[in-house]
Here is the input.
Amino acid sequence: MRVQTARTDTADRMLDLAERLVQTRGFNGFSYADIASALDVTKASLHYHFPTKAELGRRLIERYSDAFTSALVALDESGVGALDKLRAYVEIYAGVLRNERMCLCGMLAADYATLPEPMKSAVTHFFEVNERWLAAVLEQGRVAGELHFAGPPLEVARLLVSSLEGAMLVARSFNEVSRFQWIADRLLTDLSAAESVSTGARSIENPYPVG
Amino acid sequence: MRVQTARTDTADRMLDLAERLVQTRGFNGFSYADIASALDVTKASLHYHFPTKAELGRRLIERYSDAFTSALVALDESGVGALDKLRAYVEIYAGVLRNERMCLCGMLAADYATLPEPMKSAVTHFFEVNERWLAAVLEQGRVAGELHFAGPPLEVARLLVSSLEGAMLVARSFNEVSRFQWIADRLLTDLSAAESVSTGARSIENPYPVG
DNA sequence: GTCTATAGGTGGATAGAC
DNA sequence: GTCTATCCACCTATAGAC
Here is the structure.
């Protein structure tokens, strides 16, 4: 059993940069040359670790999805209430946006038609995992009397995922994180109040700086 | 004053196809060669009408934005109520999605970081126009007692634009228009009911088949 | 207004030395 | 595991004939 010598493995650094490039420029908006020059390695070295761009893309989603899932599991094990879970969930998105990025899978959803098949199914799987987790949280909150909404939790969960992804997409164009924050706050307010009573100043803390 | 001879001008056909390619594959997901081969012309001919890809992109947004604005003006002049305006607005989006496309400017928002400057400002302008129009409709509906929401209309308008864009983005990945329709219906229901009472089957008619 | 031809560059990807 | 060198397909864009 051998621990990696380098603090950050080369392949990981490649993935880190590739991830940022996809999240900012899209899957068709960067090249192996971009990564190679930034990391001071050759394209050939990149191809050693990631034979094809399709494979690189697949690995990116895999890693991103796993990290996301871990964060959601950690939230479940934290024992906090449903509303706080939703706040933390929103904060993950906000952290991504603060780094001037779009959600990896939200970005890939835009590029969807041009993606190789393995990446396509990984993208939709990401959304489904998120929707299922949110649906469970919503149900938990409804049972606890903490959240109020009509209809199936999964349907509300889908509204949340779509709205947050869209809010990131648009807010990033304006380079205004506040655009995202206001929308996210309003979505949560509408769920936590018995009737639609969302006015005044809302703010959310900052516990999950991510990505 | 001379009417174009051809039923559809060549430049228009080029724009039509380029628009579809951007809406399905993104601005970095197609080439002049794609358009040329599909229309049976040469790349050089394309460059005659649209010297650079940046100029082609700018013209695409211009045309799309103008068509959208015309549709909104027509709605204003139709004299229908605020809720029906919102329904028609949603139906424009639904029509785009049914053609297996993403909103042009929603797609370009994903490609934003890679766009030439003139395209960037045209994209954000599109969103602002939509938000302003929606804010006016929301205010109209609130005054008429037809819509119920708290806070500034512009804030709710931004929620609507972002949520609809996100719903298109995600629904297109699943190739499920119904995902979009459920979310859009729920958004409108939440605005039209005094309290959040959205259950059961909702449906919306189909008056604006669009691009 | 459309064509042929091509420039000049970059894309993803591979062979083979070290 | 990283390099040099290279392939070939494709990219945006232009020159100049018709």
User: Anything to note?
Assistant: The CA atoms of residues 170 and 180 of chain B lie 8 Å apart. Chain B touches chain A through 51 residues (CB under 8 Å). Residues 10, 41-42, 44-45, 48-49 of chain B lie near DNA strand C (CB under 10 Å from a C1'). The two ends of chain B are 29 Å apart (CA to CA).
